[in-house]
Design a protein that fits this description.
Radius of gyration: 26 Å
Strand content: 15-25%
Strand order of the largest sheet: 8-9-7-10-11-6-14
CATH class of the largest domain: Alpha Beta
CATH architecture of the largest domain: 3-Layer(aba) Sandwich
Number of domains: 4
CATH superfamily of the largest domain: Tandem AAA-ATPase domain
Distance between the termini: 55 Å
Number of strands: 24
Length: about 600
């Protein structure tokens, strides 16, 4: 007879006590099975039992592992644990948790029904992942969800909101002023920002960027950790996709003891299904302490040169995984809840490289050393550098300068090559044709390279068009100038807004534009998708004939590889959020 695993809550109601009963062979088999669930265990004192921190995901895994059907045996939850399971299940699935609510913003605006549904789910779960498609108004849903918890007597302050940039933070500040004007908000920034700790009770919401969080939560002594946030909101959650990144670990430290947590992103998968792990750990560190355990149990992997790439969810365990997340995440697509939005109309404009640059491109592609039209040479020493140079050659002419720099490891000087894009740009030439076809119509142009964006803006300005910029700070672009250019564009005062996908791909409303032009698609799926949704979101209803997404693609170049790779990533995103339309429609479909 198989062993039996008895489980019961401790007196505090926070720890599960596990005791295995059976012969030594069966108990040993049960112990081996426990090694494959994701939560960690501690030995009891005195020995004889295992201790597991209580979590819905952990209990779900125990129930699936020891169901009495498999060879692992079966489990028997005790009375207190059974009562907790019943109450937790009811809270996660019962429609009663979605009590009706109404709200009106300071401008008279009312939330949309699906936003109210999300608010109720955030309220009920406390810790929640909101995967609604970009442009659906996730920030309003979050604010309303936290307000519901506050009304029920749950302390949600102090709250920390972390976002990619101050432009996105500005949007959060506006949304809070619209929906919860009584909340006291302060920006966590500046050289003396740690002083806010002394006035912790003077504010309700502290807003900051990933970069600042990385510095102020680099360890448990960091001021943002010491703030002891009751609520942590992480916007554009896919920025934490790298489990070993400092900003990811900073978010985990800040959220470690928060009783409320909301992670927001329309693209939870940007490379592969493993991207979701840091979000799970931030939301529920007890259930998801190590990525290796998550991948081993729930993902399929392939064979790689340096590691085993994640290829998707393991079909055998997918049902269990989704049960682990029951009631703690949601995804809605714009097509399902915003049917008044215009359709996206995709097209591709092809361009040929000039002969002299085509020759250099082929040399770089085959030999990693290109002879440039001016007679100079450009070598590369890694595949990553080669891809970067090929992307640049696919778009524009450039100048190369070389200087000798000291290699700190070897102590010897080595050549360093600097590439500066310049006119002519064959892709910008096509952009100018597109602008000429749409006189008086606002257009947004995207590219991952700042230099390419500046070339586009300068060409448009030379043609007499009014141009604004949303790029990284520097070279005449400030946070204030970016906001001013965005406001001017939305007000119809600019013809072209030139945007880098990194600086302007998230958190911006650029709905005045009926056309977005991509001089080049970025490699990250999130940047590629979210940039489109700057113009296709709530507010774009004014473009009744549709919004155009135009890609300028250089023939027979790495541009095609980028598009193919984006589709590969899109397939895992579609699988994870269970929406095959993502892959069918990505980049206009196949």
């Amino acid at each position: 007879m198989a062993a039996t695993l008895h489980a019961e809550l401790d007196a505090a109601g926070s720890t599960v006590i596990l005791v295995a009963v059976g012969d030594s062979t069966d108990v040993n088999q049960m112990a081996q099975a426990l090694k494959h669930v994701t939560p960690g265990f501690k030995r009891s004192e005195p020995p004889g039992a295992l201790l597991m921190e209580l979590s819905w995901a952990g209990i779900t895994q125990l129930a699936h592992t020891f169901d009495g059907i498999a060879e692992h045996g079966f489990w028997v939850p005790g009375p207190r644990l059974r009562a907790w399971i019943a109450a937790e299940f009811e809270a996660r699935v019962s429609e009663s948790r979605l009590a009706p609510m109404t709200w009106t913003g300071t401008d008279g605006r009312t939330p949309r029904p699906y936003q109210l549904d999300a608010a109720r789910m955030i309220d009920a779960a406390g810790k929640f992942l909101l995967f609604d498609e970009p442009g659906t108004g996730k920030s309003a849903s979050t604010i309303l969800g936290l307000s519901r918890r506050l009304l029920r007597g749950i302390d949600v302050f102090p709250a920390v909101i972390i976002a990619p940039s101050w432009d996105v933070i500005d949007n959060w500040t506006r949304e809070i002023a619209l929906w919860m004007p009584a909340w006291r908000v302060i920006e966590w920034k500046g050289a003396d920002r740690a002083r806010h700790l002394r006035f912790r009770d003077a504010y309700d919401v502290f807003v900051t960027t990933y970069a600042t969080a990385r510095r102020d939560a680099r360890d448990v002594r960091g001021p943002l950790v010491k703030l002891n946030a009751a609520t942590v909101v992480v916007d554009e959650l896919h920025w934490t996709k790298s489990a070993d990144a400092q900003q990811t670990q900073a978010v985990e430290r800040i959220a470690r003891h928060a009783t409320s947590f909301v992670g927001l992103t329309g693209t939870p998968i940007t490379r592969d299904t493993g991207d979701i792990f840091p979000a799970l750990k931030s939301m529920d560190p007890a259930a998801w302490p190590a990525k290796e355990r998550f991948v081993k149990r729930y993902c399929t992997t392939g064979d790689g040169d340096y590691d085993n790439p994640v290829e998707g969810l393991d079909r055998l365990y997918e049902g269990e995984f989704r049960a682990c997340l029951l009631g703690s995440y949601r995804r809605v697509a714009k097509a399902d809840v915003l049917d008044q939005l215009p359709k996206k109309i995709y097209s591709v404009r092809h361009v040929d490289l000039p002969d002299e640059w085509r020759k250099a491109y082929r040399e770089m592609e085959t030999d990693m050393l290109a002879t440039l039209p001016d007679g100079g040479e450009l070598p590369v020493f890694s595949t990553l550098a080669q891809l970067t140079r090929l992307l640049q050659m696919a778009s524009s002419a450039f100048d190369v300068t070389m200087e000798m720099v000291l290699d700190e490891e070897s102590g010897e000087e080595r050549p360093h090559y600097d590439v500066a894009l310049r006119a002519p740009s064959w892709k910008v030439d096509v952009l100018m044709e597109i602008l000429a076809e749409r006189p008086g119509q606002p257009v947004v142009v995207f590219a991952p390279f700042r230099q390419l964006i500046m070339i586009a803006g300068e060409a448009a300005a030379k043609a007499g068009l009014a141009v604004g910029y949303v790029t990284g700070i520097g070279q005449g672009v400030t946070r204030a100038s970016r906001q001013a250019d965005i406001a001017a564009f939305q007000a119809g005062k600019l013809d072209l807004l030139a945007v880098t996908t990194q600086a302007g791909g998230t958190g911006l409303n650029l709905t005045a534009a009926g056309t977005a032009v991509f001089l080049q698609r970025p490699w990250p799926l999130a940047d590629a998708i979210q940039a489109e949704d700057r113009i296709h979101r709530i507010g774009s209803e004014i473009h009744q004939d549709g919004v155009e997404i135009i890609d300028i693609v250089a023939r027979s170049t790495v541009d095609y590889r980028v598009r193919a790779r984006l589709r590969e990533k899109g397939s895992q995103l579609a699988e994870f959020v269970q929406d095959p339309r993502i892959l069918r429609e990505l980049l206009g479909g196949l």
